[in-house]
Design a protein that fits this description.
This protein is an alpha/beta fold. It has helices at 11-15, 31-38, 56-59, 68-76, 82-86, 90-97, 101-115, 122-130, 140-145, 166-178, 201-211, 215-221, 230-246, 259-264, 271-292, 319-325, and strands at 134-135, 150-151, 154-160, 189-194, 222-226, 249-255, 295-300, 302-304, 314-316, 328-334, 339-346, 354-360, 363-365. The chain binds adenosine-5'-triphosphate and magnesium ion. Adenosine-5'-triphosphate binds next to helix 10 and strand 12.
């Protein structure tokens, strides 16, 4: 969903449309208006800039001295676009593609110059941010909290204690991303990395009913990868680029980010190793989000620190490594009954505010929609 579009309509809303009879009054200037003023409509992307989707096997073969054998290696290691090569480090290409260091360096330099990595004007950045797709959560309150929904090209963390609605939010995001555009969806693919064995297609069907979405279409667009340990979780990320391209994936869910890392690396002695591995994983995720312009939503469990004297006693797992890597962090807690409270605890553009939503049989709903 683009920022200016309405959140998807639920069946309830469609049957009882509300008539808006706002009296005419002088319109206050919205941020969009002054953005439109400083960015003339005629602004065009630089004509010489090649598309990011340039496929490696076509583009890489243009580089002198690089043959089909190298592009074959890049493709099978998951480096499908020039952007993926441009964002890689030589060490990484040597390790994953079994090519020489010199070849890796030449590839990266050529890819960077082709897609124009370098400084960008802030006005250009504003224009490209205006075009960023956002995925509605299906709750007006949550969408407002997130300034329009879950942003693509970024990593969003949903943390909270058990039963706070992390997985339910993910299920609903899957449905909205996969369902048809005429219902307010994105008609796009989803990758769901399930580390806890909690993915439930039956729940996806229940949520589809609420939006009147075609259940078969939605289920077909969701690819579920069950990760059995942290190594497997990391391998699944390396295997994702092909799936992202083939299925036009716009959303990747990691439910949950830290459970395997936490279970496998116990005790103080292994904390450093765990954090280093988690850091590597988070950087892989961030790059995937940016290179393929997808939204990544990772759920995270919490840790209780009862010895803290003032302020919060519950913290998302992963410490500073997770805190610094996630673009937007949302903390969930239980309210009365089916109510849940979501609070933005870190974001480059959203203040620390909170809102209330409900978990119902139909998925994540606003309080007024709850039975
Ligand atoms: N079909 C349903 N109808 C109504 N509520 C449901 C339904 N399915 C799950 N829930 C509610 O959702 C809540 C669980 O939410 P969720 O699975 O998102 O928890 P979580 O935050 O992911 O927890 P965990 O950390 O254990 O994974 C429970 O309160 C449960 O009652
Ligand atoms: Mg869960």
């Amino acid at each position: 969903m683009s920022k200016k579009e309405e959140p998807p309509k639920t069946k309830k809303e469609k049957t009882t449309p509300t008539k808006t009879t706002t009296p005419k009054k002088e319109k206050e200037k919205e941020p969009e208006d002054w953005i439109a003023e400083i960015i003339p409509k005629k602004t065009k992307p630089r004509a010489s800039k090649p598309k990011q989707e340039d496929i490696v096997d076509v583009a890489v073969n243009q580089i002198p001295g690089i043959g089909p054998a190298v592009s074959e290696k890049l493709l099978s290691a998951g480096y499908i676009t020039l952007a993926a090569v441009a964002h890689a480090s030589p060490y990484e290409l040597v390790e994953h593609c079994e090519i020489g260091e010199q070849t890796a360096k030449r590839l990266i330099t050529a890819a960077r110059s082709q897609i124009g990595i370098g400084f960008k004007n802030a006005k250009e950045l504003l224009v490209s941010r205006q075009k960023l797709e956002k995925i509605s959560t299906g709750s007006k309150a949550l969408d407002t909290l997130l300034a329009g929904g879950i942003e693509t090209s970024s990593l969003t963390e949903m943390s909270g204690e058990f039963r706070t609605g992390k997985t339910q939010i993910c299920f609903q995001l899957c449905v909205i991303t996969a369902m048809s555009k005429k219902l307010g969806g994105l008609e796009s693919g989803v990758i769901f990395i399930d580390t806890e064995g909690t993915f439930r297609p039956e729940r996806i069907l229940q949520i589809c009913t609420r939006f009147g979405a075609d259940p078969e279409e939605v289920l077909n667009r969701i690819s579920v990868g069950r990760a059995y340990n942290s190594d497997h979780q990391m391998v699944l990320v390396l295997e994702s680029p092909r799936l992202i391209k083939d299925n036009n994936v716009k959303l990747m869910i990691i439910d949950s980010l830290t459970s395997h890392f936490r279970a496998e690396y116990t005790g103080r002695g292994s904390l450093l190793e765990r954090q280093q591995k988690l850091n590597k994983y988070l950087h892989q995720l961030l790059r995937l989000a940016e290179v393929y312009e997808i939204a990544i939503v990772a759920t995270n469990q919490v840790l209780s620190k009862p010895d803290v004297l003032y302020g919060e006693t519950i913290f998302p797992i992963g410490g500073n490594i997770v805190a610094h890597s996630c673009t937007t962090r949302v903390f969930l807690r239980k309210g009365k009954g089916d109510k849940r409270i979501a609070r933005v605890i870190d974001s480059p553009h959203i203040p620390e505010i909170e809102t209330v939503f409900c978990i119902s049989s139909e998925g994540i709903v606003d309080i007024e929609e709850s039975d």
